[in-house]
Specification:
Length: 290
């Protein structure tokens, strides 16, 4: 049987050397307390970001930490609002070029693999605040001037959860900054691929500016083995398109984008749908070379 990797490399001219898990449906939920060594992790990430990732940027990493700590400690674990992070966000302004903004919902692992291969794109996690706090958990305790390292509540416990409030403000800032053609990656293997209660549906979508955004390019992808539940023409994505139309956005929608399917097939080269894709790609290559 033909190799998916060789077929894909021949057609799109890239070699993919990463392992891509299937679509991830989870969100960060606190089970234990604040992430151990959080200060060292955050400040270390900050120095890495400003030294290696975006060396042209200048930020005071120690002061960013102090403002973050000030926002969280000596607060109850359900009493940290977006406003508490105001000073911290003021210390890390960013402006990204247009046409590079990539949004996602219920496609966490795949979207970051996509952004890693096609480095034109930037996700929220590629911004400074996203880079610093990705996959971390934190909460304070009212009676102590330190983080609670024993237990933190889940996001669903309260609307003023310290982790939720930070990501809500970060998501709003990222969407307000978006310009040009933007991309949204959604998971067609779940019901409600577009969910009005998700961070994208409740915060980012409402923060997009039709005066700044030319096109919203929706990409719907399903797991190779299915199920195939939603698409551009059915399910909650139709609702998303109606919202975009009502707000004056221009849009496109693509099911099973080839590059995304290839990324999924890297994980399981022997999946029947991936073998079929490899055959089709090699046949197309043979036709174009004759």
């Amino acid at each position: 049987m033909p190799s998916v990797k060789s077929a894909c490399s021949a057609i799109i001219g890239i070699t993919i050397c990463i392992s891509v898990p299937q679509l991830c449906f989870s969100q960060v939920q606190a089970v234990f307390g604040t992430t151990p060594n959080i200060k060292h992790i955050v400040t270390g990430r900050c120095f890495t970001y400003t030294t290696l990732v975006q060396p042209g940027l200048r930020y005071d990493c120690e002061e960013i930490w102090r403002q973050f700590e000030k926002a969280v400690v000596q607060q109850s674990s359900c009493n940290v609002t977006e406003e508490h992070y105001f000073e911290m966000f003021n210390m890390m302004p960013e402006i990204w070029p247009c046409d590079r903004f990539l949004f996602w919902s219920k496609t966490r692992v795949l979207v970051h693999s996509y952004a890693a291969v096609f480095r034109h794109f930037w996700t929220l996690e590629d911004t400074l605040v996203g880079y610093l706090f990705n996959d971390l958990v934190w909460c304070g305790q009212e009676e102590d001037s330190d983080f609670d390292f024993n237990v933190c509540p889940a996001w669903s416990t309260c609307r003023t959860h310290p982790v939720y409030s930070l990501w809500k403000r970060a998501s709003q800032n990222f969407a307000e900054m978006a310009c040009g053609n933007i991309t949204v990656l959604l998971n067609g293997s779940v019901i409600n691929a577009f969910n009005r209660k998700s961070m994208f549906g409740s915060v980012e979508l409402d923060s997009l500016n039709p005066q700044r955004v030319n096109y919203v390019n929706i990409k719907v992808v399903t797991n190779p083995e299915g199920p195939h539940i939603e698409s551009c023409s059915q399910g909650s994505i139709v609702e998303l398109i109606q919202i975009l139309l009502s707000r004056g956005f221009q849009w496109t929608c693509t099911d099973s984008d080839l590059a995304l399917v290839i990324l999924q097939c890297v994980q399981d080269l022997n999946h029947p749908s991936c073998q079929m894709l490899a055959t089709n790609l090699l046949q197309q290559k043979a036709l174009t070379s004759t």
